[in-house]
Amino acid sequence: MNNREEDVDPGAIRHSPAVAFLGPLGTYTHQAAYNRFSTSVTYEAKNSIAGVFESLSSTIPLAVIPKENSIFGSVVETYDQLRSKAVGSTVFIRGEISLAVQHCLLVRKGIRLENVTRVLSHEQALGQCTQFLSEKLPNAKTVKMPSTASAATALFEPEYGSTSAAICSKICVNLFEGLEVLFEGVQNEKSNFTNFWVLATSLDLPLPGTSSTKDSGRAIIRLASLTEAPDVLSTLASLGLFVNRIDRRPYAGDIPFRDIYFVEVSKHADRVVNGIESSSKPIENGEIRWRDVVESAIRRIDSGKWEARMIGIW
Protein backbone atom coordinates (compact mmCIF):
# COMPACT_ATOMS: atom_id res chain seq x y z
CA MET A 1 0.00 0.00 0.00
CA ASN A 2 1.35 3.39 -0.97
CA ASN A 3 -0.14 5.95 1.40
CA ARG A 4 -0.11 9.19 -0.56
CA GLU A 5 -2.04 12.23 0.47
CA GLU A 6 -1.46 14.50 -2.51
CA ASP A 7 0.71 14.39 -5.58
CA VAL A 8 2.50 17.68 -4.94
CA ASP A 9 6.05 18.89 -4.87
CA PRO A 10 7.69 17.92 -1.52
CA GLY A 11 9.49 21.25 -1.39
CA ALA A 12 6.19 23.10 -1.55
CA ILE A 13 4.73 21.05 1.30
CA ARG A 14 7.28 22.31 3.78
CA HIS A 15 5.98 25.86 3.31
CA SER A 16 2.28 25.00 3.38
CA PRO A 17 0.19 25.69 6.49
CA ALA A 18 -1.07 22.65 8.39
CA VAL A 19 -4.72 21.77 8.91
CA ALA A 20 -5.78 19.51 11.79
CA PHE A 21 -8.85 17.34 11.28
CA LEU A 22 -10.71 14.49 12.93
CA GLY A 23 -8.87 11.43 11.61
CA PRO A 24 -7.80 9.00 10.51
CA LEU A 25 -6.88 9.77 6.92
CA GLY A 26 -9.81 9.10 4.65
CA THR A 27 -12.63 10.20 6.97
CA TYR A 28 -15.38 12.50 5.79
CA THR A 29 -13.84 15.32 7.81
CA HIS A 30 -10.66 14.76 5.81
CA GLN A 31 -12.74 14.80 2.62
CA ALA A 32 -14.35 18.11 3.63
CA ALA A 33 -10.98 19.64 4.47
CA TYR A 34 -9.53 18.48 1.17
CA ASN A 35 -12.50 19.87 -0.75
CA ARG A 36 -11.85 23.25 0.86
CA PHE A 37 -8.06 23.45 0.84
CA SER A 38 -6.96 20.85 -1.75
CA THR A 39 -3.15 20.80 -2.06
CA SER A 40 -2.59 24.27 -0.58
CA VAL A 41 -2.05 22.79 2.92
CA THR A 42 -0.71 19.74 4.70
CA TYR A 43 -3.04 17.56 6.76
CA GLU A 44 -2.68 16.46 10.38
CA ALA A 45 -5.06 13.72 11.56
CA LYS A 46 -6.15 13.80 15.21
CA ASN A 47 -7.89 11.11 17.24
CA SER A 48 -10.66 13.27 18.67
CA ILE A 49 -12.40 16.61 18.26
CA ALA A 50 -10.79 17.72 21.52
CA GLY A 51 -7.43 16.74 20.05
CA VAL A 52 -8.11 18.93 17.03
CA PHE A 53 -8.80 21.95 19.24
CA GLU A 54 -5.77 21.29 21.42
CA SER A 55 -3.47 21.02 18.40
CA LEU A 56 -4.14 24.53 17.14
CA SER A 57 -0.94 26.53 17.45
CA SER A 58 1.59 28.50 15.44
CA THR A 59 2.62 25.27 13.69
CA ILE A 60 -0.96 24.09 13.06
CA PRO A 61 -2.95 27.30 12.57
CA LEU A 62 -6.01 25.75 10.88
CA ALA A 63 -8.50 22.98 11.57
CA VAL A 64 -11.70 21.42 10.27
CA ILE A 65 -14.28 19.92 12.64
CA PRO A 66 -17.79 18.51 12.13
CA LYS A 67 -20.64 20.82 13.11
CA GLU A 68 -23.89 19.00 12.29
CA ASN A 69 -25.42 16.27 10.18
CA SER A 70 -28.72 16.71 8.35
CA ILE A 71 -30.03 13.42 9.78
CA PHE A 72 -28.33 13.06 13.18
CA GLY A 73 -28.20 16.73 14.20
CA SER A 74 -25.52 18.77 15.99
CA VAL A 75 -22.17 17.27 16.98
CA VAL A 76 -22.28 17.64 20.78
CA GLU A 77 -18.52 17.23 21.31
CA THR A 78 -17.84 20.15 18.97
CA TYR A 79 -20.21 22.46 20.83
CA ASP A 80 -18.74 21.38 24.15
CA GLN A 81 -15.30 22.42 22.91
CA LEU A 82 -16.71 25.81 21.89
CA ARG A 83 -17.29 26.53 25.60
CA SER A 84 -13.53 26.84 26.14
CA LYS A 85 -12.14 30.29 27.02
CA ALA A 86 -9.62 29.84 24.21
CA VAL A 87 -12.43 29.96 21.65
CA GLY A 88 -12.97 33.60 20.81
CA SER A 89 -9.50 34.44 22.10
CA THR A 90 -6.93 32.25 20.32
CA VAL A 91 -9.29 30.01 18.31
CA PHE A 92 -11.95 31.31 15.94
CA ILE A 93 -14.49 29.88 13.51
CA ARG A 94 -13.59 31.25 10.09
CA GLY A 95 -15.74 29.36 7.63
CA GLU A 96 -18.18 26.58 6.92
CA ILE A 97 -18.05 23.60 4.57
CA SER A 98 -21.01 21.51 3.47
CA LEU A 99 -20.36 17.95 2.32
CA ALA A 100 -22.76 15.46 0.81
CA VAL A 101 -22.07 12.19 2.62
CA GLN A 102 -21.71 9.85 -0.30
CA HIS A 103 -20.61 6.33 0.49
CA CYS A 104 -18.70 4.47 -2.20
CA LEU A 105 -17.91 0.78 -2.67
CA LEU A 106 -14.15 0.40 -3.07
CA VAL A 107 -12.08 -2.67 -3.95
CA ARG A 108 -8.49 -3.40 -4.83
CA LYS A 109 -7.84 -2.86 -8.51
CA GLY A 110 -8.88 -5.84 -10.57
CA ILE A 111 -11.45 -7.18 -8.10
CA ARG A 112 -14.87 -7.61 -9.65
CA LEU A 113 -18.22 -7.39 -7.90
CA GLU A 114 -18.80 -11.14 -8.26
CA ASN A 115 -15.55 -11.77 -6.33
CA VAL A 116 -16.80 -9.90 -3.24
CA THR A 117 -17.89 -12.09 -0.33
CA ARG A 118 -17.33 -9.57 2.48
CA VAL A 119 -18.05 -5.87 2.87
CA LEU A 120 -16.06 -3.90 5.44
CA SER A 121 -17.02 -0.59 7.01
CA HIS A 122 -18.00 1.26 10.16
CA GLU A 123 -21.22 -0.02 11.71
CA GLN A 124 -23.14 3.15 10.89
CA ALA A 125 -22.03 3.14 7.26
CA LEU A 126 -23.06 -0.49 6.86
CA GLY A 127 -26.47 0.35 8.29
CA GLN A 128 -26.81 3.28 5.89
CA CYS A 129 -26.21 1.08 2.83
CA THR A 130 -28.52 -1.87 3.47
CA GLN A 131 -30.59 -1.39 0.32
CA PHE A 132 -27.55 -1.49 -1.95
CA LEU A 133 -26.08 -4.49 -0.16
CA SER A 134 -29.37 -6.38 -0.35
CA GLU A 135 -29.68 -5.72 -4.07
CA LYS A 136 -26.08 -6.05 -5.29
CA LEU A 137 -24.40 -8.26 -2.67
CA PRO A 138 -27.17 -10.25 -0.95
CA ASN A 139 -24.85 -13.09 0.08
CA ALA A 140 -21.90 -11.00 1.23
CA LYS A 141 -20.99 -10.95 4.90
CA THR A 142 -20.68 -7.53 6.56
CA VAL A 143 -17.64 -6.91 8.77
CA LYS A 144 -17.60 -4.02 11.26
CA MET A 145 -14.47 -1.86 11.31
CA PRO A 146 -13.39 1.02 13.60
CA SER A 147 -13.92 3.57 10.81
CA THR A 148 -14.70 3.77 7.12
CA ALA A 149 -11.06 4.70 6.47
CA SER A 150 -9.77 1.65 8.34
CA ALA A 151 -12.04 -0.47 6.15
CA ALA A 152 -10.24 0.89 3.09
CA THR A 153 -6.78 0.14 4.47
CA ALA A 154 -7.90 -3.37 5.48
CA LEU A 155 -8.31 -4.23 1.80
CA PHE A 156 -4.52 -4.44 1.60
CA GLU A 157 -4.40 -7.16 4.24
CA PRO A 158 -4.15 -10.76 2.96
CA GLU A 159 -7.14 -11.76 5.08
CA TYR A 160 -9.47 -9.44 3.17
CA GLY A 161 -7.95 -8.15 -0.06
CA SER A 162 -8.97 -10.58 -2.80
CA THR A 163 -12.58 -11.18 -1.72
CA SER A 164 -13.58 -7.98 0.10
CA ALA A 165 -14.91 -4.50 -0.59
CA ALA A 166 -15.06 -1.44 1.62
CA ILE A 167 -17.74 1.20 2.05
CA CYS A 168 -16.00 4.52 2.58
CA SER A 169 -15.33 7.97 1.21
CA LYS A 170 -14.12 8.42 -2.34
CA ILE A 171 -11.04 10.28 -1.06
CA CYS A 172 -9.58 6.91 -0.04
CA VAL A 173 -8.86 6.22 -3.72
CA ASN A 174 -6.54 9.24 -3.73
CA LEU A 175 -4.96 8.36 -0.41
CA PHE A 176 -4.28 4.66 -0.88
CA GLU A 177 -2.84 3.66 -4.23
CA GLY A 178 -4.23 0.42 -5.60
CA LEU A 179 -7.91 0.99 -4.86
CA GLU A 180 -10.73 1.75 -7.28
CA VAL A 181 -14.41 2.67 -7.03
CA LEU A 182 -16.97 0.10 -8.13
CA PHE A 183 -20.07 2.10 -7.14
CA GLU A 184 -20.72 5.64 -5.94
CA GLY A 185 -23.66 6.81 -3.85
CA VAL A 186 -24.49 3.44 -2.30
CA GLN A 187 -26.19 4.90 0.80
CA ASN A 188 -29.95 4.50 1.35
CA GLU A 189 -30.54 8.18 2.10
CA LYS A 190 -29.46 10.41 -0.77
CA SER A 191 -29.95 13.72 1.09
CA ASN A 192 -27.38 13.13 3.82
CA PHE A 193 -25.20 16.19 4.40
CA THR A 194 -22.69 17.17 7.05
CA ASN A 195 -21.58 20.73 7.76
CA PHE A 196 -18.10 21.42 9.06
CA TRP A 197 -16.44 24.47 10.54
CA VAL A 198 -13.05 25.87 9.58
CA LEU A 199 -11.07 27.01 12.61
CA ALA A 200 -8.09 29.35 12.71
CA THR A 201 -5.83 30.82 15.36
CA SER A 202 -6.62 34.38 14.29
CA LEU A 203 -9.46 36.39 12.78
CA ASP A 204 -6.96 37.94 10.39
CA LEU A 205 -5.06 34.84 9.29
CA PRO A 206 -5.37 34.52 5.48
CA LEU A 207 -7.06 31.25 4.58
CA PRO A 208 -5.34 29.33 1.79
CA GLY A 209 -7.21 27.85 -1.12
CA THR A 210 -9.29 30.91 -1.98
CA SER A 211 -8.62 34.40 -3.28
CA SER A 212 -11.88 35.89 -1.99
CA THR A 213 -11.60 38.43 0.84
CA LYS A 214 -15.28 39.45 0.99
CA ASP A 215 -17.38 38.80 4.05
CA SER A 216 -19.96 36.05 3.57
CA GLY A 217 -22.04 37.60 6.31
CA ARG A 218 -22.18 34.90 8.97
CA ALA A 219 -21.06 35.03 12.60
CA ILE A 220 -21.53 33.12 15.84
CA ILE A 221 -21.85 34.76 19.24
CA ARG A 222 -21.37 32.85 22.50
CA LEU A 223 -23.64 33.99 25.34
CA ALA A 224 -22.82 32.67 28.81
CA SER A 225 -25.58 33.31 31.35
CA LEU A 226 -24.49 35.01 34.57
CA THR A 227 -27.91 34.80 36.23
CA GLU A 228 -30.25 31.98 37.16
CA ALA A 229 -33.17 33.05 34.95
CA PRO A 230 -31.84 34.95 31.93
CA ASP A 231 -34.23 36.66 29.54
CA VAL A 232 -32.97 35.02 26.37
CA LEU A 233 -35.53 36.47 23.98
CA SER A 234 -34.99 40.05 25.07
CA THR A 235 -31.24 39.58 24.75
CA LEU A 236 -31.55 38.24 21.23
CA ALA A 237 -33.76 41.18 20.34
CA SER A 238 -31.15 43.60 21.66
CA LEU A 239 -28.64 42.21 19.18
CA GLY A 240 -30.73 43.55 16.34
CA LEU A 241 -29.33 40.89 14.02
CA PHE A 242 -30.93 38.19 11.91
CA VAL A 243 -30.71 35.00 14.02
CA ASN A 244 -30.34 31.79 12.00
CA ARG A 245 -30.09 29.26 14.81
CA ILE A 246 -29.45 28.84 18.53
CA ASP A 247 -27.68 25.94 20.24
CA ARG A 248 -27.43 25.46 24.00
CA ARG A 249 -24.95 23.59 26.20
CA PRO A 250 -24.44 23.51 29.98
CA TYR A 251 -22.11 26.14 31.38
CA ALA A 252 -18.74 24.54 32.12
CA GLY A 253 -18.33 26.03 35.59
CA ASP A 254 -18.98 25.46 39.28
CA ILE A 255 -22.56 26.76 39.23
CA PRO A 256 -25.06 24.11 38.10
CA PHE A 257 -27.87 24.67 35.60
CA ARG A 258 -26.37 27.70 33.96
CA ASP A 259 -26.31 27.66 30.17
CA ILE A 260 -24.19 28.79 27.26
CA TYR A 261 -25.97 29.77 24.06
CA PHE A 262 -24.37 29.73 20.64
CA VAL A 263 -26.22 32.22 18.48
CA GLU A 264 -25.55 32.09 14.75
CA VAL A 265 -26.40 35.34 12.99
CA SER A 266 -26.21 36.55 9.42
CA LYS A 267 -26.59 39.59 7.24
CA HIS A 268 -30.04 40.27 5.93
CA ALA A 269 -30.64 42.01 2.61
CA ASP A 270 -31.60 45.68 3.05
CA ARG A 271 -31.75 45.26 6.84
CA VAL A 272 -30.96 48.25 9.02
CA VAL A 273 -29.72 47.35 12.49
CA ASN A 274 -30.08 50.13 15.08
CA GLY A 275 -29.16 52.70 12.49
CA ILE A 276 -26.23 50.68 11.14
CA GLU A 277 -26.71 49.18 7.71
CA SER A 278 -25.55 45.55 7.42
CA SER A 279 -24.43 45.41 3.81
CA SER A 280 -22.67 42.71 1.86
CA LYS A 281 -20.57 45.37 0.11
CA PRO A 282 -16.90 45.48 1.14
CA ILE A 283 -15.57 48.28 3.32
CA GLU A 284 -13.63 49.89 0.49
CA ASN A 285 -16.97 50.87 -1.07
CA GLY A 286 -17.71 52.96 2.00
CA GLU A 287 -19.85 50.42 3.86
CA ILE A 288 -19.39 49.31 7.45
CA ARG A 289 -17.72 45.93 7.78
CA TRP A 290 -19.82 42.96 8.91
CA ARG A 291 -17.33 42.42 11.74
CA ASP A 292 -17.99 45.96 13.01
CA VAL A 293 -21.75 45.34 12.87
CA VAL A 294 -21.41 42.18 15.00
CA GLU A 295 -19.09 43.80 17.53
CA SER A 296 -21.48 46.74 17.85
CA ALA A 297 -24.35 44.33 18.51
CA ILE A 298 -22.40 42.57 21.25
CA ARG A 299 -21.77 45.87 23.04
CA ARG A 300 -25.53 46.29 23.38
CA ILE A 301 -25.82 43.16 25.53
CA ASP A 302 -26.14 43.67 29.30
CA SER A 303 -22.70 42.69 30.62
CA GLY A 304 -24.14 42.24 34.10
CA LYS A 305 -26.30 39.36 32.92
CA TRP A 306 -24.26 37.85 30.10
CA GLU A 307 -20.71 37.15 29.11
CA ALA A 308 -20.84 37.73 25.36
CA ARG A 309 -18.11 37.04 22.84
CA MET A 310 -17.89 36.72 19.09
CA ILE A 311 -16.24 33.34 18.52
CA GLY A 312 -16.48 33.20 14.76
CA ILE A 313 -17.11 35.26 11.65
CA TRP A 314 -16.94 34.43 7.98
TrEMBL record:
* Any matching Pfam family: PDT
Task: Tell me what this protein is called.
Answer: prephenate dehydratase
Please list the residue ranges annotated as the Prephenate dehydratase domain: 18-201
Keyword Amino-acid biosynthesis set for record? yes
Q: Which domain of life does the protein's organism represent?
A: Eukaryota
Pathway named in the protein's UniProt entry: Amino-acid biosynthesis; L-phenylalanine biosynthesis; phenylpyruvate from prephenate: step 1/1
What species is given as this protein's source?
Answer: Schizopora paradoxa
Keywords from UniProt, A to Z, are: Amino-acid biosynthesis, Aromatic amino acid biosynthesis, Lyase, Phenylalanine biosynthesis
CC terms in the record's Gene Ontology section: cytoplasm
Q: What Gene Ontology molecular function terms does this protein carry?
A: prephenate dehydratase activity
Q: Does the keyword NADP apply?
A: no
What are the BP-aspect GO terms?
Answer: L-phenylalanine biosynthetic process
Return the EC number: 4.2.1.51
Q: Which InterPro entries match?
A: Chor_mutase/pphenate_deHydtase, Preph_deHydtase
Looking up PANTHER family in the UniProt record yields:
PREPHENATE DEHYDRATASE P PROTEIN, PREPHENATE DEHYDRATASE-RELATED
